Amino acid sequence: MALSVPRPRPPADRRDTAGPWDPAAERCWYENGLGWAVAPDSDRAPGAGLRLLTGLRFDVVELPAEAGFAALRHAGPKAPVALHGGTMRLFVAAGSADELPGLLDWLEWGDIPLDLEGIGAGGLVDAPTPPGAVGRPGAAVWLRAPEPGCEVEVTLPSLTLSSFTTPSVPSAPPTAPSAPVPSPAPCADGSGTDPHSGSAAGSDLVRLVDTAATQCHRIRLRRQSSQPLAFS
Q1: Are the CB atoms for 45 and 181 separated by under 8 Å?
Q2: How confident is the model at residue 204, as a pLDDT?
Q3: Nearest C-alpha neighbor of 142 from the set 187, 96, 82, 61
Q4: 3-state class percentages of the chain: helix first, strand second, coil last, to nearest 5
Q5: pLDDT of residue 178
Q6: What domain of life is recorded for the organism (predicted)?
């Protein structure tokens, strides 16, 4: 059954009034609307887009978009997801990038080459164009945009102790997760008061990473099998 992801709806007050790309308005949406950290303009090349600082409120798992679509069901219904060309960026709990290598080892993916990368503390990712705005050519876009007025942390896949008690994974991890579990914070509409229930809830990082790694491996194998054989 094909996974259908609805396109994000632009805000009503900007749906019919979007003009040329405005980096100042874009920065305002991220800094004031979402409370996210944006790299200084002095670090941005002329004509380049804004960049978001990772490792503060969120980390990012970057992978081929084809593999990412298969992993979306484990990301939670409100976890932000961005696309940039053929790359998907899944927003996950802060600290997850540091956990990713050990988690892949534990899931027995550690020795297998994968197009799967975690971007955490000190990292930068291109800021997707806000919903309803006109972005510069080639800019990243939101497949599932964050909601202003809602704490993003409660929507993000995270590494929690409950992640290791399901039948699909071993009964205990080699080490306890080092990333803290964020306290739940309500959205503007009153939802999301419990990070493990309701439509605002995130999902655990273990299933997300395992599915993403499986799909990345399948894509790599398919590409290798389609390459012509070399004869000496």
Answers
A1: no
A2: 87
A3: 82
A4: 30, 15, 55
A5: 45
A6: Bacteria
CB-CB neighbours of 206 under 10 Å: 26
| Measured CA distances, 138 to 77, 127, 141, 185 (Å) | 26, 12, 9, 34
Q: How far is CA 118 from CA 60, 102, 106, 125, 173, in A?
A: 6, 12, 16, 11, 20
Range of the domain at 199: 55-116+148-222
- Cβ neighbours of residue 186 under 8 Å, at least 6 residues apart? 151, 192, 193
Q: How many domains does the chain have?
A: 1
Helix (H, G, I), strand (E, B) or coil at 88: strand
Per run of 10 residues, the mean pLDDT along the chain (length 232 residues) is 51 49 90 96 80 97 96 92 97 96 95 96 96 89 93 91 47 43 42 37 84 96 76 50
| Phi and psi torsions of 161, nearest 5° | -60, -30
User: For position 137, what pLDDT does the model report?
Assistant: 86
Residue identified by tokens 């990412």 is 68
